[in-house]
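User: Some background: our group keeps a shared notebook of sequences we're curious about, and every so often someone picks one and asks for a predicted structure to add to the entry. Today it's my turn. The entry only has the sequence so far, pasted here. Could you supply the structure so I can complete it?
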Amino acid sequence: MESPVLRPFSRNIWPVFFGAALACASVPAGAAGVDIATGIQMAQIDFDTYHALLLERCKSVAPDSVDALAAAMAQWRAQNADALVILRQLYKAQLVQQMRARQPAAIEAEIDAHVAAVMGLFNGGLKDKVAAVPAAEARASCEGEYANNLRNRPDMDFNELLKRMTLGR
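Assistant: Of course. Here's the predicted structure to add to the notebook entry:
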């Protein structure tokens, strides 16, 4: 059964958040970065899984692009891995704090289940979502758009997001 706490989250934030993340391949580089709250939510995506799924899709729609895309993904991961860990820890701490505020008598198992359910919203159905992208869009992502966005879009630079949070901008 869906938690009443998660219901508004999944209806309101999830479509915006996931749409923003997957739209990276179709928005021109250099566009303004997302707000901090959306960026923190984007940081919850399991990019390792998403990238593996995208690479698998690219093998069928644009096989010649796989090596270059994999290299761009590896470079992006190396540059963002530490910031993603910190952002995920901060988000998890916020979820725990909110759960404790709403339900002070909640036991650890309930809190852990709540956190897992929220995280499931971010990453549930990734395989189906990647498979549902039309072939032409997937091909464009494979052939350079996604790699370009990993390198150039401010909202894909999680170090910058962490810096913005720290500096309060």
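Suggested note for the entry: Residues 29 and 153 are 5 Å apart (CA to CA). Residues 1-32 have pLDDT under 50 and may be disordered.
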